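Hi, here's the filled form for the chain we discussed.

Project: internal
Contact: R.S.
Residues: 150
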Amino acid sequence: MLRPGTRPEADALRAMAARSKQVWGYDDVYMRDWLSEWVDWLTDFARFDVEQEGSPAGFYALDDLGDGSAELWALFVDPTRLRRGLGRLLMQDAVARAKRRKFDALLIHADPNAVGFYQAWQVMLLDETPCPRVTGQLLPTFRLPLTYGT
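And the returned structure, exactly as it came back:
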């Protein structure tokens, strides 16, 4: 079931996001720094959660950038539920929601390990910036143009 997120779930979802990110082998120092940047990020943006068997299984967050586009600020799936189509479900909902709000594009700052997932959505690479925490790692920024049916 996909539903709007609620404030009381923020801590549990922050922990789930950390577990999901750690699947890629980031060390404790990286994770502490990464999480410190996201103090209230789960409550600052429009968030939508997917639930399975009564517990959170994943979520995404959208932010209106004020220029006609939106940013997919986060998209995470619980690592025990990866490869079950939940990421696709969340992305489909994020795209549909952005289209309903008449955004012309979705901006995505991605983890390098998620590039393949986003490329499947026909995103355009806008930029790659050096990661401040991992020497030599580049962080991609994608743009997904949103088109509307006739």
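Let me know if anything looks off before we file it.
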